[in-house]
Amino acid sequence: MSVPSVYRAARAAAAGGPLEVVERVVSEPGRGQVRVAVEACGVCHSDSLFVEDLVPGVRFPVVPGHEIAGRIAELGPGTEDAWQVGDRVAVGWFGGSCGHCGPCRRGDFVVCANLKVPGWAYDGGYAQSVTVPADALARIPDALAAVDAAPMACAGVTTYNGLRRSAARPGDLVAVLGIGGLGHLGVQYAAAMGFETVAIARGAAKASFARELGAHHYVDSTADVSVADALQALGGARAVLATAASSEAITATVDGLGPRGELVVIGADAQALGISPNQLLMSGRVVRGHPSGTAQDVQDTLAFSALHGIRPMTETVPLDGAEEAYRKMLSGTARFRMVLTTG
Predict the structure, then answer these.
(1) Which residue in 94, 95, 116, 92 sits closest to 42, CA to CA?
(2) What percentage of the chain exceeds 70 in pLDDT?
């Protein structure tokens, strides 16, 4: 099979964009790397960290994209025992680890001190081709299409892992704050895991959608009854998965936790949480941030999603429309994940 000499990629030449599609020369993967022919790539809000130059170490031009689904097109040396050309694979926020820092030596790869995030450490998936470390690869089940698998590599694994690593067990009351790009998956996962699932969002009109996703209860955060009181009326939450990017909304859930309840924060906001020690001490409550997940976690997420029929709600746009898709994601009008396709 002949290897193409060039591929197309959407890049930001300077901070803030715009994203422009250019041609790049295909290079062979190095030792421990594989080249993936990209079929779909999700547009995640975290891509803005790199396009807008909001974190240290961004080098322009930037090709964003860390929700990648495709097929292995070429193997680098040292990868042949585990992978074959044609294997369907996904790559997420976890784009490889260094293997030698303290967290890596303890086996906690997702908090690697030198984490390789696609679009930051190397060119991401807004492209027809991407070269990645082999330890970033997750296998995609046959039952999942590429456009469904791609968002699962970040949005999916973050919500799935946040729930399965929480203190909650089947039958426990679990609340999901927000039913947008992350939360609409979180509600589906919570229900499939056997939790008594509460969806929390703004406005009574979203109640029917929450129930379609599998929620047993709906809490309107704009109602006269506070979110905390509503959760306590249901018995108090064993866990709250906070997907909304609002510190104010996250803070409002804390007093809705039951004894030894856990607030799992995955929605990013630069504002401080308004939580006092007194809210945590007497009931033994826990607040923790949750990062995404390793390649194995992504693979577990994909397998669970295939088994339970869980899919993201997506809007697909060809690679040429990367700038349009990125701006729509930033505006908050996407329902719910924008996905670029290369076919």
Answers:
(1) 92
(2) 99
Confidence of residue 1 (pLDDT cuts 50, 70, 90): low
Distance CA 4, CA 128 (A): 11
Could you report the per-residue pLDDT of 18-39, keeping only the tens digit for each?
999 999 999 999 999 999 999 9
The Cα-based distances of 194 to 74, 167, 191, 266, 268 in angstroms read: 41, 13, 5, 21, 27
Burial class (CB in 10 A: 0-12, 13-18, 19+), 29: buried
Judge whether 142 and 106 are in contact, CB under 8 Å: no
Q: Which two tokens stand for residue 32?
A: 């421990």
SS3 139: strand
Q: At residue 311, what is the residue type?
A: R
Rounded to an integer, the average pLDDT of 4-11 is: 95
pLDDT in tens, 192-246: 999 999 999 999 999 999 999 999 999 999 999 999 999 999 999 999 999 999 9
With beta carbons less than 8 A apart as the criterion, state whether 199 and 208 touch: no
List own/partner pairs for 190-199 with CB under 8 A and 24 or more apart.
190/163, 190/214, 190/241, 191/215, 191/216, 192/304, 192/308, 192/310, 193/163, 193/164, 194/170, 195/163, 195/168, 195/170, 195/171, 196/171, 196/172, 196/234, 198/173, 198/174, 198/231, 198/234, 198/237, 199/175
DSSP classification of residue 237? E
Q: What is the DSSP string of 6-53?
A: EEEEEEESSTT--EEEEEEE-----TTEEEEEEEEEEE-GGGHHHHTT
Is the pLDDT at 2 greater than 70? The verdict is no
Q: How far apart are CA 3 and CA 5, in angstroms?
A: 6
